[in-house]
Every structure is written in C-alpha cells, then in structure tokens.
Design a protein that fits this description.
The complex is a heterodimer.
Chain A lengths: L6 E5 L11 E7 L2 E8 L7 H5 L8 H7 L4 H16 L5 H30 L2 H22 L8 E2 L2 E2 L7 H23 L3 H7 L7 H6 L5 H4 L7 H4 L20 H25 L17 H4 L3 H12 L7 E9 L2 E9 L7 E5 L1 H6 L2 H5 L4 H11 L3 H5 L1
Antiparallel strand pairs in A: 1-2, 2-3, 4-5, 6-7, 7-8
Helix pairs in contact in A: 2-3, 3-4, 4-5, 4-11, 4-16, 5-6, 6-11, 11-16
Chain B lengths: L10 H9 L6 E5 L2 E6 L1 H13 L7 E9 L7 E9 L4 E9 L4 E3 L8 H12 L2 E3 L29 H9 L1
Parallel strand pairs in B: 2-5, 6-7
Antiparallel strand pairs in B: 1-2, 3-4, 4-5
Classes of the chains: A alpha+beta, B alpha/beta.
Keywords (chain B): Cell membrane, Membrane, NAD, Quinone, Translocase, Transport, Ubiquinone
GO molecular function, one term (chain B): NADH dehydrogenase (quinone) (non-electrogenic) activity
EC number (chain B): 7.1.1.-
Amino acid sequence: MTERRTMTINMGPQHPSTHGVLRLVLELDGEIVVRCAPHIGYLHTGMEKIAESKRYQQVIPITDRMDYLAPLSNNLAYVLAVEKLLGIEVPPRAKVIRVMLTELTRIGSHLVWLGTHAIDIGAMSVFLYAFREREAILDMSEQVSGARMMSSYFRVGGLFADLPEGFEKTVRSFITSFPDRLAEYEDLLTKNPIWLERTRGVGVIKPEDAVDLGLSGPNIRACGIPWDVRKSNPYSGYEQFRFEVSRGTRGDVYDRYLCRIFEMQQSVAIVRQTLECLPDGSIAVADPKLTPPPKPRIKQSMEALIHHFLLWSEGFRVPAGEVYQSIESPRGEYGVYLVSDGSNKPYRLHFRTPSFVNLESLSKMVEGRLVADLVAIIGSIDIVLGEVDR
Amino acid sequence: MDDVKGAEENLTVSRLRERFPEATLSIRSFRNETTLLVRPGDLIRICRHLKEDPGLLYDFLSDLTAVDRFGDHPRFEVVYHLYSLQYKWRIRLKVQVKEDEAVPSVTSVWGTANWHEREVFDMFGIGFEDHPDLRRILMPDGWEGFPLRKDYPVQASPKWWEEGAAGD
C-alpha cells in the first residue's frame, strides 16, 4: 500500500485570484484542499492608529482608502458614528442624498465583484461590461465630489457640497438603462451550464456556521438568513424606502452570486425612490461650530473667517462617550466603534470591517474542495484587502 | 465605571441580574446604547447565557476590540459588541484588564472571536486564555511592541536614524 502524502503550497500573496495581497497556505492532497490557512496583514497601514492623531473631519479620507470599492459606505458609517456622539441629525436633503449615493456605490462595488469574480472563473465579457457600467458610477462620483474613487463626499453634519446642476438627470438616465444591462449579465451567467457547474454546491456554508463565524451581507443572506442592517436597524432614513432583502437557500457560491444580482436590482429601486422624494433645503446642519461658512461670507465677515480658520486648524470637540454605529456596506455589517474623551480627536476608533470577518470563514468553505473551487470561493466572499488589513 | 443613576435598564440587563444575582454588573447608558461591565471571571458564563437564553439570543458577535486607557488602572478594556439576530438588539460588554493579565477567550461561545482576539493580542498585547491559536495576525511575527497602545508612537524615527544620532 502506498503512503498517502500531502503537499503544502503557497497561493499568493501575489496571485490574481486572491483579489489582493492575501497569502493562503494550502495543504493539498492532489487537487483537494485538506487545510487552508489565510495569512493577512500585507496591506496593514495602521489606519486606526493614524486616526487617533487626526481631527474628526480629517479621518474621513482615511475611511475611503479602507474599502476603495465602496468609499461612500465607509464615509457614511464613520460620519454617522460621529454624529451619534454629537447627538445631531443631518437635514432631510442630506439624508436622502447620502442614501442615493451609497446605493449607487453598492451597485458600483457589486459590479467590480461581478466582473472580477466572473473573470476568475473564465468569463471575460462580463468583466468588460461590468466595468463599463461602473465607469458611469465613477463619473457620478466625480461630478459630486471631484474625485472618482476617494470621494470623501460625506462630512460630519452633512455633505461636502450640494448636487451639481443636472445630476439628477444623469442618475435617472443611469437607473433607466441599468436594469437592461443587468439582464444582459444574467443572460450570460445565470443559466450558463459552465457557470452553474463551477458555482452550484461549491463553498457551501451552513446557516449556523455562518452566524457562528460572524458572516454578514450577501454571504449570510445566501445561507437563508435575511439579515440586512438597512432593515433591522435602519439608519440615515432607510426606513422610508421600500426594498426587499435578498435571500438564498443553499449558501453556496451560486446563491451568493444571485443575492448580489438581486441587491443591484433593489439598489436601483431605492435610487429611483430617492429621486422621487428628494427634498429641497440645506445639506448640512446649521451649526457654525461644525459647518464651515459659505465661501462668499468668508470674504465679507471677520467672524466667518475666524470660524473657518478654527474649523480647519482646531476642528470641533465631541462629547466624551462611546458609540457603535453599523451600516450595511456592500460586503456586510460595517461597524464603527468610536470612543471620545471630549477632545477634537478620536480617543479610539475601531472599524468592524466585513471583509476581515468574512475571510475567516474561507477555511471552512474550501476544505475538502478542489483548488479550482478555491478561486471561485474567494471571489464569492467579495473581500477587499484594504479593509481586511486596515 | 459607576452605575449611572436613572439609567434605563433594558430587558437584557434585568434578565442577567435575575440569572446571575451574585455577579457584579455595572451598567451605563449613553445615546441609547447599553454598556455592561463584567468581571473576567463571570465573562464566559454571562456570554453563554446571553447567547443561549431564548429571550435574548445574542448569537452574533459583531465585534471584539480593546481600548487602552493609558494612565488608568486597570489599563485596558476589552469590548464585545453583541447582536441578537432574532430580536435585533445590540449590547456592549466590557471587561477591564491589567497589563500582563489575560482575559478568558470567548472562542468557545462564538467562533468568529478567533481572529478578533488575535487582532487584540497583536495590537494591544492582551492575552486570551484558552485561545486555540493566539499569535499575531496583522503584524509580522517578529514585530516588537503593540502598535495600538497609547505609549507606542504614531510616528517613529527609523532605527538607522537613532543609531546615527547616538553615535554622533
């Protein structure tokens, strides 16, 4: 009888299908993965440490860089946490604009996931199509903030600026054409026999394991647990929008795919409602200690100039205390734990990033599967390494 | 942490008090969030009860992290954010810990605590008793110090600079 031996190999940290600098130490029995140990930290930039030395508004651009595919989601979680500490609520117009742009961000993020996931499995056209549509979303981000990716558009107390002229028309035109584009992706993949073969029954995780491992977002919903923070603990006025929560049954790669496709459809529905109910009015709280004075006033009023100067040099103080604010990011529960000592800088800022937590379940999903399945499974978890490592 | 007078006790707290009358529980309520300070010795049984009591079902450990209260005694707080998928409630648990002291690992209650506790160990140097695989997670194995401690500098001069300065 021949001795059965396993082989240990490294996949990554430089490998296209690990979606970033992720190293997986794989113990293989032929093509079967016996054990998979993820090694992370290659992209660790000490964001939480840096945040302790920055004023509250200065932290916003840091959150952008954590999940560079959904920067506005991160902005939202952070500003909501600071606003909770301050005990303020932004005006209705700012709330609705936040929801509109966060949902567009969700679509953009899911498009990158779809394109890269499909190309991992060998479907090239979807990748090109998905990036074409994402381009339109980046254009919108550029229109509102001046930046395509790291937009930092949300501010504590409101928004950086109001929507530019004609922006609503651009959004309307996008959400009118996008459902047809989405149907095209589905034509290419949903009933494609190769796609089905590569994704159905692959990377299955049971609902009880998903809860135990803290999975969230489309990954937990694909197991049949319809938990969405937007519904369960609404924030930023989500309770006023009608949408459905995605839900799968098998908890495999295919169900995660279906959940995200469904979520894009629902995001379109939410964006449509935001256009219908977009109120007029201010986009920031009327508090001179938080909101900078309008530029023309700075040229006329010494008081305004002083306030502007103080805001940019000293920032604002936040009452001592601690809060936890979470939102439903494209990847799941994105939480911000913020501790204030009453100064103008966070005493402690911790990000509960869904990618970090979701990646922990990779080993459970892949053990016993083929190496080729591993590629499909990593894609289906939809990790962003900037968020894993922070 | 002192009890806040008039703090509204929610159902979770009253059920815990009922079940563990001998346990010391300090409660603080701020911005509609409840924080419960527990002793390390009570942590595991309280966590298990919070997870398994049919009236509570905090089955989801959202987050686990720590705060360095440098200058205070005990120095660290380990913070647990629990969530009940069934009732949609959140609660925050806290355990205070001295430097060089360990906290019981909650990996036996929630599997996800594994990576969270490794991160807290990596960043603060807080140990977790009975953790199955306690080693650094974000920093390299040979890294010196714990970056999220308050006495660890945000910006440090490189070693070659310090060596050069000392040699001059």
